[in-house]
Known about the structure:
By secondary structure, the protein is α/β, with parallel strands linked by helices. The protein has one domain (about 5-145): 3-Layer(aba) Sandwich (Ribose 5-phosphate Isomerase B, Chain: A). It has helices spanning about 10-25, 40-55, 70-75, 90-100, 115-125, 130-145, 155-165, and strands at about 5, 30, 60-65, 85, 105. A five-stranded parallel β-sheet has the order 2-1-3-5-4, sandwiched between helices. Helix 4 links the parallel strand 4 (about 85) and strand 5.
Amino acid sequence: MKIAIGCDHTGIALKEALKTYLDSRIIPFEDFGTFTEESTDYPRIAEKVCKAILSGGFDRGILICGTGVGMSIAANKFNGIRAVVCSEPYSAIMARRHNNANVLCMGARVVAGGLATLICEGWLNAAFEGDRHQRRLDIITRIEQRNSLPGVSQLDESAAKEEPQNASKLTDEPKPNQDTQPLSPASGV
């Protein structure tokens, strides 16, 4: 088993604790960042880890942000990734047994190193039970396939290489008055 691990700026200390745990179990891993406490966009780290898993180079991934929720949402945008956010071992174990979760997400502001190690240990040691659970995963896979855009590959490296050329045209920053104004009761939302 080989693990891809990554975090945003809030998860560095917890990531280091989990890397120490993985080393103690002699489980190979690669750290996909981030490496400093400078503010980082967690979706970019989630993308690196998920692409590494989907490429076949890694079996599972561990992602850490403030709550684990953002990383889980970003990771689950990839067909074939089943990311789960856990703050206790039972859910992590069941996520492997019943859902074959291949990405474990945790929140550095939610769990400390000792608990995170127990969560990780349960997740790593649990085995997928298959049978009726495989049938359910097959349904999820069909839902993914029905709802993905035709002709768009999530592993399309050419699109990833084009990002710097298009960086001036595309931005993650909102335009003035776009998504920055509070919703009013009259807006119907």
